[in-house]
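Okay, any thoughts on this one?
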Amino acid sequence: MKFLFDDESFSFETLRAAGFACYGGAELGEVLATAARIPNGDTEAWLREWRATAEHVHQIGLDSLAKGHRVSAREALLRASNYYRTAEFYRREDPANDAEAKELSGRYRETFAAAAQLMDTPVRPVSIPYEGTTLPGYLFLVDDSGEPRPTIILNNGYDSPAEEAYFALAAGALARGYQVLAFDGPGQGAVIREQGLPFRHDWEAVITPVVDYALTIAAIDPRRIALFGYSLGGHLVARAAAFEHRIAALILNDGLYDYHAANVRQMPPFLQQWVMTGRDAEAVPVAGMMMHFDTTVRWALQNGVWTFGASNPADYIRKTAPYTLAGLTDLISCPTLVFDAENDLFFKGEARRVYDALTCEKHYILGTEDEGSGEHCHMGAMLRTHQHLFDWLSTVLA
């Protein structure tokens, strides 16, 4: 689905930003006006123009708040948060030392936190104990009654921060009486940015402390905790569910059986061989040429080097080798919903592999281009995706 840009990555990321409009994360006119100022593939213009829009909308929110217009302020601050996240997206050349990237990531967290204080339902910042530190996140509650309710733990993906969870799941969940506990894990959001902790393949070591924390909260029904994985999170939570059996239901959006294989098969055979045999002197320059000509490849490899703690793109690919569900799917025992996307830009075919390998109670939903839900994680089709998800979940948790 081409959306406003010929550049495949720009098209998808603009669709992602615009797709959250249904939950107040964007205004279509603002998206169209911003995109019109950005040439295809120009990442400097991307940052400049999305930042300008974010700052403009941020100021609207501050002005509204100063005048006591609570709803207007909340709406503007939510949009500003999404736009700041979008502006920062391609700054991956040296994110650990990039002052502007750090500033923008701070702003999308700051504006979301300000909007959360203005919501009609309670939103609590959380700090989840994890291996001598804490994982930051949010608990989105239906109300402040303390009544135990079904709750979904949301696990981010390769680049999505906890703040995005409101648009990706929490808004739709709250409207149906479900609560959401969202967090940044190693390699994600504020954890990689502030603590420098990279991804780890044994994700059960992350999810088990999160479940432990959830069980300390009286407002969370311990018998009705679901686990939702978003993008790469669809692999991570499936891995975790093979070992963590206090989960009542598992949702993979989308399913991802073998992250390593999904990366490797996008490379020509000679490059695969060089990477996997450690011939970095040959592999890294070739990867560099691919990155120069392809926005998607450049962003994906740069982000991987950073979030996996790798020394170069070839090292990153090697570090993904343990990220597979081979030998683990039989251990997943809870009912599982596997989403797939007809035109998945990143992991085409992987969701079906997961579904076919599962032996538990399972359900498969394919998002199609004809319905407008065929893109990765069904961007641009949040309402339809949530209808599928919550209709299934209401039956499973009943």
